[in-house]
Each structure stands twice: as C-alpha cells, then as structure tokens.
C-alpha cells in the first residue's frame, strides 16, 4: 500500500489547508494544516494528514484539529498536532502528548560576544560534554532517593533551585513557573520511579542537544530589547525532556486507556489515540502522572542549566552572574494543559494537547512573566545543527486561531533510519566543522540520524507560522558548537 496520503485538502489561503469533516466517518470537526503550497507535497508523503483527521474524531474536541507546518507522522497525534477538548465533555489522550512528556527547549542568555566565545568553543564544548551526561540510558551525577524524587515531581524546577542548583528568578522564566499543578505521585508506577531516579540532569539521546549560538539577525529590535537580546550575543539552547521517566508514564497509562475505551464505549479510527474522559478516574490519573513527568522535565532542564553555568564559569574564570547567564524562557513541546480560551464568543475550559507544538501566548495573557506581558511570550524554535534557530513572540492571532500555539521546530522529512542510511560513509562532524559548527556526540550514529538534510528548512516553517499570524519573528541565531546526545 502506498504511504502517500491522497485525502482532500481544501486551500483556504496561502497558509491554511482544510480537511473537511465529511472526509471521514466519525470526524466531529474539520482538520486544519498550516503550510505553504510547496510544503503540501512533502506533507502528503506520509500519513500525518490522516492523523489530523483521526484527532478530529476525539470526543469533546473543540475548534479544529490543528497541525503546524513542521507536521510529520507521530504516535497517535502527528508531531505538530494540536487538539483541544472540553474538560467536562471531552477526553484526554496520551497519544496527544507523546512518550517524551514535556520535551522542551530552554534558552540561557549571556553577555558574551562571538569574539570572546569562538576562540574557546572547543574547550567549552569539551567541558559541557564532560559535565552534562548524555546518550541512551545516561545517568545523572546526583542520585535522588524516592522521597526526594517525589518532592521534585510535585515542585518541579523549584525543588531543584531550592537545593542550590539555580537562581530564584529562574523559575519565573519557565512555563508554569516550572511546576505544573495537579501532579500526584500515587498515579506513578514503581517502574517509572526506578527509571527516573538516576536520570535527572541528563541530556539523553536522539534529537536532544545543547547548542551554543550567536545572534545573527534581529527582526524586531523593540521586542528583542524586551527579551534582552542583541546582535552578536552568545546564547545557549537546551533541548531535552523527561527521559525514561516520562516514557514509562506514557507506556503505563496507554495500557489503562485501552481498557478505558471499552469501559466508556469510545470508538476511534486509531487505537494509538487511546483515551478516557478527562473527568474519569483513568483520565485524572493520567493527567496527574503526566504532570509529574512534566515537572521531572523542568527539573531536568534546571539541573542541566546549573551544569552549563558551571562549565562557562570554569572556561571563562568568571561567575555565571557576571556572564549574565539568566534564563530567557523555557517552553514545553509535548504536554496537555488546562487552559481557558475564547471559542465562538464563549470562554471555555479546555484540555489543550500540544504534541510537538509550542505555546505561543500573545500580549496580555495572565500566565506570562510580567516582563513579557506587553509583547507576548518568547517562542523558541530550534532548527537543525547546521543552520540555526529562531526566537519569536506569541501573538493575539494565535490566541484566536490555534489556542495560543505555534510550531516546535523544523520537523523531520527523513526517518532516523533513512537519515542514517543516507549519511553512511560521511564524516558529519568534519562537514559541520568546515561550516564553523563544532560538534560532539556520544555516537556517530546520532550525528548521521540528525544530519541537517533530515529536517525541513526551519526558515520556511517559521515563515509560514509568521504569515499565518501564529507568532512573530524576533531573532535568528546560528550555532557555533553543538553537543548531541
């Protein structure tokens, strides 16, 4: 059977494509994909649009089943998928969050320039590589007891900061201030505790990375100033999530959801969308465990922030405070959150699933740090290790159209196995170094899987997001050194 998707896509304008609800039995709403005309050919190459249609079948879905321009096939929901369900009449689905719960991005600022940093980038990268454990199954430098881990699962990044691994102001610059409410450790299995107790403060593998970047272009000087960003500034981007702990939480509750589907007579076209009514015991238990995993991930990025600051202190012989290493912001990519949104003139309480999608709240939202309230939140969009990253800000249009959501990255166009096969025989590290990007990784296989050609053009993805009004470009930064898991 061809993997090409041949379903209907109705062009609404240059940036929006509709899958009408009549396409498939069971669809309760239309699907809406944000993309330009050229991207549509790529998007049809896998079954991700079918997944957009399947998400439209979720009981209690509100608004459209959405997909961002970095859409590609995922488990249940497509990567780049967004589905909001009513908390009283709708469901929650682990497939709408994914296995790496609260995989996300944090950006740390510095006052360093490229002239100061580039001569030391090899030393810096080597120091980071030895300070931040990475790779499959990597273990952290600090072992936490189960009572300590329980506190972290409840308090998230705050629990780590209280132990001396961060600055008090860090938590103000994290989505949910680094601790999602509703976390309940009684919903977490012993196996998840076992997998998580040694993995805090680790980068992991796959597409997770630490990147040292230089600000190359400012698109909006006024908002850049609010964010504290300026040309030639050195930034550090951290991309990782909840490691084996989150994976186990998802695995455990998918089994429960399969039974819940039968219990509540829920019939969906894809069993990977296994779900339960949000207000049911099964739905509440998953939400509580997922919140624990989200808090694990924020704690993880907080510990890594500490190791990054220590590494810079060691190389530059200056304090992290003197180097201006404050957190710009920290955003989640894989999460389900309870939010209020205006839909058809009514304020509704919704469970917003974001699966490979970034919150993009516009100006005036009460959940934002006071510093960003007048302009909207920073939206952190990494590209691939050979090109660069964008920092955007959230918009009022996103609040109206996408439940305050934008893309999360470039989006893959090759599977890991395809990328690995296409890069066999090449020295990826040398190729990148010739372009000015120093790279270190736990394995050459990871570098082959993460070659720049495996990803869409992040500039094109961001262009669609901006022209659709979902976020506004502020800064573009290029990598000078990358550490891969």
UniProtKB/TrEMBL annotation:
<feature type="binding site">
    <location>
        <begin position="333"/>
        <end position="334"/>
    </location>
    <ligand>
        <name>GMP</name>
    </ligand>
</feature>
<dbReference type="InterPro" id="IPR001233">
    <property type="entry name" value="RtcB"/>
</dbReference>
<dbReference type="GO" id="GO:0170057">
    <property type="term" value="F:RNA ligase (GTP) activity"/>
</dbReference>
<dbReference type="GO" id="GO:0046872">
    <property type="term" value="F:metal ion binding"/>
</dbReference>
<dbReference type="Pfam" id="PF01139">
    <property type="entry name" value="RtcB"/>
</dbReference>
<keyword id="KW-0342">GTP-binding</keyword>
<feature type="binding site">
    <location>
        <position position="100"/>
    </location>
    <ligand>
        <name>Mn(2+) 1</name>
    </ligand>
</feature>
<dbReference type="GO" id="GO:0042245">
    <property type="term" value="P:RNA repair"/>
</dbReference>
<dbReference type="GO" id="GO:0003972">
    <property type="term" value="F:RNA ligase (ATP) activity"/>
</dbReference>
<feature type="binding site">
    <location>
        <position position="239"/>
    </location>
    <ligand>
        <name>Mn(2+) 2</name>
    </ligand>
</feature>
<dbReference type="GO" id="GO:0006396">
    <property type="term" value="P:RNA processing"/>
</dbReference>
<keyword id="KW-0464">Manganese</keyword>
<comment type="subunit">
    <text>Monomer.</text>
</comment>
<feature type="binding site">
    <location>
        <position position="208"/>
    </location>
    <ligand>
        <name>Mn(2+) 1</name>
    </ligand>
</feature>
<keyword id="KW-0436">Ligase</keyword>
<protein>
    <recommendedName>
        <fullName>tRNA-splicing ligase RtcB</fullName>
        <ecNumber>6.5.1.-</ecNumber>
    </recommendedName>
</protein>
<feature type="binding site">
    <location>
        <position position="333"/>
    </location>
    <ligand>
        <name>Mn(2+) 2</name>
    </ligand>
</feature>
<keyword id="KW-0479">Metal-binding</keyword>
<feature type="binding site">
    <location>
        <position position="389"/>
    </location>
    <ligand>
        <name>GMP</name>
    </ligand>
</feature>
<dbReference type="GO" id="GO:0005525">
    <property type="term" value="F:GTP binding"/>
</dbReference>
<feature type="active site" description="GMP-histidine intermediate">
    <location>
        <position position="408"/>
    </location>
</feature>
<keyword id="KW-0692">RNA repair</keyword>
<dbReference type="InterPro" id="IPR036025">
    <property type="entry name" value="RtcB-like_sf"/>
</dbReference>
<feature type="binding site">
    <location>
        <position position="484"/>
    </location>
    <ligand>
        <name>GMP</name>
    </ligand>
</feature>
<keyword id="KW-0547">Nucleotide-binding</keyword>
<comment type="similarity">
    <text>Belongs to the RtcB family.</text>
</comment>
<feature type="binding site">
    <location>
        <begin position="382"/>
        <end position="385"/>
    </location>
    <ligand>
        <name>GMP</name>
    </ligand>
</feature>
<feature type="binding site">
    <location>
        <begin position="207"/>
        <end position="211"/>
    </location>
    <ligand>
        <name>GMP</name>
    </ligand>
</feature>
<feature type="binding site">
    <location>
        <begin position="408"/>
        <end position="411"/>
    </location>
    <ligand>
        <name>GMP</name>
    </ligand>
</feature>
